[in-house]
Amino acid sequence: MVGRTVAREPPMTDAVRNLYADFIRTFGNILFAVSLFVVWGILTLIGVIVDQGKAPSAYYAAYAAPVARAILRLDFNNVYHSWWYVGIIALILTSLAVCTFKRVIPARLPALRPVKIDAIPLHATIDVAAPIERVRESVERFFAQRGFLVRNREFGGVEWSFADKQNWARRGVLVAHLGFVIIAAGTTLYWAFGFSGVTAILTGQTVTIPRSGATIHLDRFRYRIDPIATKTGIVYQPIDYVSHVTASGKDGIAHPYVIRVNHPINIDGTNYYQSSYGFAVRFTLLHNGRVASLSQPLYAGDTLKIPGTSRSIEFLRFVPTMDPQTKMPSPDPRIGNPAVALSLVQNGTNEGAALVLMHRTVDVGDGWSVRPERYLMFTGIQYRYDPGVGLVGIGAFILLVGLIISFYFLPARFYVRVDPHGEGATVGLAATTVKGYDIFAEEFGSLVERLRTSLQSGG
Amino acid sequence: MIHGMPIDEILLVIAIASYIIGALALFGFFLSRVPFLRNLGATLAILGAVAQFAQLVARYEISHIWPLLNLYGSLSLFSAMSVAIFVIFAFRYRLWFAGGFVLALAAMFLTYGVTWNEGIMPPVPSLQSYWAKVHVPIVVTSYAAFLVSFVLSALYLVRFYVERRRGAAMMLSASVEPAAAGAGAATATIAGPNDGVSGWLASLPSLPQLDVLVYRSVAVGLPLLTLGIITGAMWAKEAWGAYWQWDPKETAALFSWIIYAAYMHLHTRNHWRGMRTSWVSVIGFISIIFCYLGVNIWISGLHSYKV
Description:
The structure holds two protein chains of two kinds.
Chain A: H1 11-27, H2 30-49, H3 56-62, H4 65-73, H5 83-108, E1 123-128, H6 132-145, E2 149-155, E3 158-165, H7 172-193, E4 195-202, E5 206-208, E6 215-230, E7 233-248, E8 254-260, E9 265-267, E10 270-287, E11 290-294, E12 303-305, E13 311-319, E14 339-346, E15 349-357, E16 362-365, E17 368-385, H8 389-408, E18 412-421, E19 424-433, H9 438-456
Antiparallel strand pairs in A: 1-19, 2-3, 3-18, 4-17, 5-6, 6-7, 7-8, 9-10, 10-11, 10-17, 12-13, 13-14, 14-15, 16-17, 18-19
Helix pairs in contact in A: 2-5, 3-4, 5-7, 7-8
Chain B: H1 7-32, H2 35-63, H3 71-93, H4 99-114, H5 132-176, H6 185-188, H7 196-203, H8 207-239, H9 248-266, H10 275-298
């Protein structure tokens, strides 16, 4: 027995090749892509239903304990920035890339090859009593006059004509996919190099924006809220928020600017937006009726420590108008009879809350008292540097163009063969499209009828 | 003003009345195929849509405030565009049989919108933008196109399930006939091919034709929804500083977009085209209603503009 040497590749190579084939087969499968869409959709919906970015206590307050625990453990309180949400988008992009190279690009220009006409649902035959060459020319002319690209090929001695319509539109899906990839690239640019944040600037205060280095001085903030009579009562409708600022960028030259909602300013490529406003309050701390200190401006949520005690005062919120009759906050958000909501905290425990009018003193024990002395308006300015925004815009536009091409243009191919039939010829026609047969059935029937009329009238 | 009633309210009453009577006429046509009912329904559909567009213009003329910035205004446009898109489809594809459903839904949404009418209010600062004149009509028109696709999908499914049930019944009839010959009981409860339901089914477009019509209406809605999300992102960038903030409205719109993108992908598969894609279209419209009304009303966020 003579031994034979069989060339075998190392098993590892086979394993890698099989793995690669499995990967391509899975990620190139449209149903797999749709499954990813479904998962993406469900996760997105969870983010809509479950409030995002709240403190854990908010979830325990809103849901039963096991549900709240599940929300927190599964990161459902921060869905859109969780690793698995980003992961699912990465899987979709991978699937999109594989589908593009495996399905979309190869399908773009399908090979010219003969088909079994009867096996295609859209098919017809036309018998014509005319010489075969004339029929062939007439058929070609018929399709060419209607904007079809006609190409002839011979297979096994039989001449086939292939008439393509809107073949360019086969690129629609490719264009849409490309748009999606460009959007992803733009978003990645922001993640890599962009930044954003919010800063509060008190009237008269100057703030340096981290990373951009710009300085912004708030000269004045004003707002307008109008009481509007509606069918169900008075509604206090915000009309305008305006920050008058003096800002300087890298050149160090100060310029006056006006920032209002829908009208951001741009300094050295970073945009600054009017995002919110509010009131900070300075408190006077008194001991035995004498002024002990004047606090820095406190924002809602800040605390003021009472010296020598385990107590502190938490500034809950500023109340623009306290109703003098009910002693409760008025729904009118305009400054009228201003007050502050305070709570007394001892050893981390809330000991009670009170609404205190401005310039009124409230006793907090052990000879100490607190007086809200002065309120200051602040403006909330959001800043954002996003180097990817242009790319996202281009990607979105390309995605839209791709969708329009895919939806509104129908690439279709007619397969035509003309065979001799007695003294004349038989024209066999079949048509395929990228969107199935039903969508083209009406047009196919109409074209066939017109071709029949044309051929039988000697056209 | 007529007898103290402002012109916009008169036009609103005309629109609602036209939709209700038009819906009844087209339901009548749906069941009877009497051409007069179709003509009456079509005329009332057009009258109602024209009255609604005129009402929106009148409201703008009276207040000088863009009328689509609250739920009442946008629901008005939604119902008007639903009818307008349907009328265009009906003329192009002879769809009047579905008009009763579209008009009934339009009347329902318009009436619901009226309950949110709080009178004329100036817009909040974030809505004071030229983008309001671009973004809102585009998005609302996409919702309207999806309403039409929802009605057509529902009709597809009705026809599909009725046909399947009747097909199964016919097969059962064929299989029991030899054994139960003469008994009559097995076949007596199964409707024959020439009863009223068959005639009604035969007057509808075929299932493949209905599927193509659903596809064509989604083809109007999805690019518009995409454009709406894009213009919304551009507006958001101008108003709030970021083109995407994962606001509930944005993400709900993304959710709907994902569903219709899935529809589009599934529609390329022969085995998924038809019943399954019609279900996807129905789910898509439910998601649209959630995005449109559910998020505005139940979930607080940057888009909570009700009145």
